[in-house]
Amino acid sequence: MEAAETGAAARILDSMATQYGESVRMLRLRGRCHESMRQYQKAYHCYTQATFLGEPDLELALHLFHCCEKLGKRKEMYTWLDKIMEIKPDNTTYLNLKATNLEQDGMWADALKLYYRLVYDDPANEAATESIARCELMLGNLESARKYLEKRMEMPGKTDWSARLLCAHLCLIKGNWQKAKTYYVTAAEGFIREENGTYADFLERVDGDRKLLAANNISQNDACLMHDTLWMAFIHGL
Predict the structure, then answer these.
(1) Where are the domains of the chain?
(2) What is the 3-state secondary structure (H, E, C) of 56-77?
(3) Is-contact 132 119, C-beta < 8 A?
(4) Mean pLDDT (10-residue bins), the chain, 238 residues
(5) In CATH terms, are 1-88 and 90-157 the same topology?
(6) What is the CATH number of domain 1-88?
């Protein structure tokens, strides 16, 4: 529906709820209208009320997860993620959804457990394999990170720039600056080739991993020095 039609529908549903009382179906309909208009607080209120009238199913849990995510209710968001996984325990999409959120919130060890489950079920899962390497790097487990980066780089098809970026970080952490520079440069080439942005955008992405480098005792001075080295490489034609 168009925004105006959705707004009109929401007003009608609100009026009907006032006149005839709430029901699970009515609350869900109102919630979907508000959610489609990005009125996440109102949608959250409707969906939450619906949980008081009946056991939440997968659809309702997904709506509440989405609203909590948008509203920054991270703790409750995980409650609904757990409910989703309780309903669909072996669904790889939901496993990955929880893993990526845990990683985003810095809960590396918890995220790692889920990524290992994903790779166990599908050894060819490139994204999960790369995420294992990233989490292992954040936890300082360099040998495990190396193992999974090698596995990721050996996978058939296109090896994207993000895997090479992690290889560069690992080399820098191990003190091999020249090899790190080579990986950074090839990662930049892939980043630009895949139309992710400019070289400056790539360096911003590199700088975004300062926390990962700091977790492995790379100082801010050394990180800045590599940043400047990469700028010089770009100026001189990579």
Answers:
(1) 1-88, 90-157, 158-238
(2) CCHHHHHHHHHHHHHHCCHHHH
(3) yes
(4) 51 53 79 92 95 93 97 97 95 96 96 96 94 97 97 82 96 96 94 92 94 95 93 79
(5) yes
(6) 1.25.40.10
